[in-house]
Structure formats: structure tokens, C-alpha cells
């Protein structure tokens, strides 16, 4: 057997062949099925982009209408799921609530026929349709309120924002939210997608695939960074404090949240689009002083770390956009999951099409032939 060099974090090691998305980290290019992210953000919707990723092509008008109708029809969650969620502690993190709820869906739809395209489509539709409802339901229930029923007359993103506080959102806000979902839906072989593909490779059900990916997305080095960006901006408090804060981080070798990326060595193209969306929101709904702090941070980090290729990533500006929409900070990562579920499902389908169970090797660096010491002698 060929002995390969151990690479921590599997950096640079291909884990799959994939035609879903493409990143050029030097040039700052991101494509979904060959289409540039900038074009999709301008012209597409989240559900159309989800269709593109999962079924490999842009839908016809009729295919899109059918898909949108199916998702609308499946938005409601079962009473028993809602009752189960009521028992969750209100102090629990919404990502944990989402992971548990996504896994619980598998209990209700336990038939597992991975060769049946109807089963595949039903699962895709159900997960994309119900995950936002579950996120919104937990948000209301943890405040002691009843969840709001989805509204069939509202589009996907407008309905989610409506379910959060029972107010119909401003159309610009709903459109910007939809673009955010497009930007977050897919991003090649990141940690949560890898996790989804490993789980998929065991031929388990798609609910387990999504639940394991949600658990992986929650960490602060991955999707959880957008939450930490806002906490960091709150801690910094003013533009004058930016430079000392960054110098402190560099001295103590701690990471500056929202900066750096394993693949991008220039500013993340999604951060560029998000920054523009944030500016549109500030123009219509009022300025946010955190934006001034963020801009100063970008300047100082570029000065100090630009030579290492450390620039803002997607999480740096997504938090500012969601904050301006009045969304609680600990929902930022669940919203990331609402988007990313479609990317995970695209990878689930791709993995099934040419499956081989993941079973990497390891470099053993432990001991051998050690004798067992009885407990009273230790
Ligand atoms: N702040 C300060 N220094 C950084 C940062 C940062 N945010 N990111 C990387 N560096 C430095 C490292 O200290 C290291 O320096 P060294 O070579 O002198 O030791 C060098 O850049 C390489 O960094 P690594 O951590 O080895 O890069 P890796 O590819 O493993 O990590 C990661 C990428 C995890 C995203 C990292 O940049 C980070 O922790 N960023 C902050 C968290 C964050 O924003 N995560 C969201 C990423 S986007 C997403 O997951 C959706």
C-alpha cells in the first residue's frame, strides 16, 4: 500500500470528485455548477439555486414552479416534532435544537430507499421546506410563544422572516435575505460538507446526513464564526479600539474572527457581495456603527496580515446584515444551515451516485506491547 504524507486537516487532499461548485482561492472566484456567484446573487433566487445545485441544471419555468410549490406545501412541521421541541431547554443553542430536530425527522420518515428517485426528491423537499420552520419555531418557543404557521402566500425567505416574529418583512429585506442564502448554500469540500459526505457514504438516511452536517457547521472555526464576529465587534466597541484589539490578538496568537480562509487568499467574493448588501440595508434602514468598526478592522488586518493572504471571509459581513434585520445573534449559524442544507443534499446525491464508504487511514504514534496494570497498582 502506498504510504502518503500525513496532512493535518487533510489540507490539499481531494476527498471526492465533484461537479457541484468550484473555488479559485487566488482569484476570488466561486461558481455553482459553472455559474459565477455574482450572477446568481443578482439574477437567481435561493430555491432556483438550490435546484441548480441538487439537480445539476437550472430548472425550466415549469420545473421551478413545481419545486416551489412542493416546498411551500411541505413547510409545516408535525405536531409531535413541535411538541418535542417544546421540551428543549430555552437556554439551549438553536444549532443544537436544529440538529436534534433534523435527526428527529428521520424517525418519522424512516423508509430508506436510496435507489428510489421519489424518496430522494421527497427528502430533499422536506428538509429544505421544514428546516426554516424548525429554526423559527424554536426561536418563538424559547421565548414562551407558540410557533407561527407558515404563510403560503409568502416566498421562501419572506416566509422565514415572517415566522420569526409574525411580521411581514420589507420586500428589500426579504430579497437581501434570499441573496444571503444563495451566498451560503454551497462551498466545495468544507468541514460540514465533508461530514455530510462521510455520513452519506454509510448509506444512512438524509436526515442523519443533515444532522451530522449541522453539528459540524456549529463550531466557531466554521459556520459559528459569524456569531463570534458580532461578539467581537461589540467587545471592540469603537473605531479607536480596533488597532489595539488586533495588535493584542496578534501578540496572543488568537484568531481574528471573520478573517482567513483555508482556500481564499484574497477577499472572499461572498464577503464583497455581502458588504454591498449591508450598505443597501444601512441606506434604507439607518447606519450601524458596527459597520465603521468592521471597515477599520478590514484596513488594519490587511495592513498586518494581507501578506499572509488573510482577508474577510463570508462570516465577516453576514453577521452585520442579519443584525440589521433584527435577527438574534445566535440564529446566524442556524440561518447558515437553512441555506447550506441544499448544498449538503447536492453532495448527498452526488455521493450516492458513486459511493464508496469513507475509510481513511491514520498514522499511529502510540505505544505497543504495554502490559495491563491492575487498578490497585496504578
Ligand atoms: N486571525 C489571525 N491570524 C490568522 C487568521 C485569523 N483569523 N486566520 C489565519 N491566520 C494566520 C494563522 O495564525 C497562521 O499563521 P502562521 O503561519 O504564522 O502560524 C496562518 O494565518 C495560517 O492559518 P491557519 O489557521 O493554519 O489556516 P487554516 O487554513 O487552518 O484555517 C480558518 C482557516 C480556520 C478559517 C482560520 O483562518 C480561522 O480560524 N479564521 C477565523 C475563524 C473564521 O472566521 N472562520 C470562518 C471561516 S469561513 C467558513 O467556515 C464559513
- Anisotropy-based shape: globular
What is the overall pLDDT average? Answer: 95
Q: Could you give a short account of the major beta sheet?
A: 3 strands, antiparallel
Structural class determined from secondary elements? mainly alpha
Task: Give the total of domains.
Answer: 2
What is the count of β-strands? 3
- What is the CATH-assigned architecture of the largest domain? Orthogonal Bundle
Give a verbal description of the structure.
- It is a single chain.
- The protein is mainly α and 378 residues long.
- The protein has 2 domains: 19-220 and 328-353, Citrate Synthase, domain 1, CATH 1.10.580.10; 225-324, Cytochrome P450-Terp, domain 2 (Cytochrome p450-Terp, domain 2), CATH 1.10.230.10.
- Helices cover 56% and strands 3% of the residues.
- The chain is built from 16 helices and 3 strands.
- The chain has helices spanning 37-43, 46-55, 61-73, 79-86, 94-108, 117-141, 156-165, 171-184, 191-200, 206-217, 225-236, 242-251, 269-285, 289-305, 314-324, 332-353; strands at residues 21-24, 29-32, 35-36.
- A 3-stranded antiparallel beta sheet has the order 1-2-3.
- Strand 2 and strand 3 form a beta hairpin.
- Helix 6 (117-141) runs antiparallel to helix 16 (332-353) and helix 7 packs across helix 8 (171-184).
- The chain starts with 20 loop residues before the first strand and ends in a 25-residue tail after the last helix.
- Bound molecules: acetyl coenzyme *A.
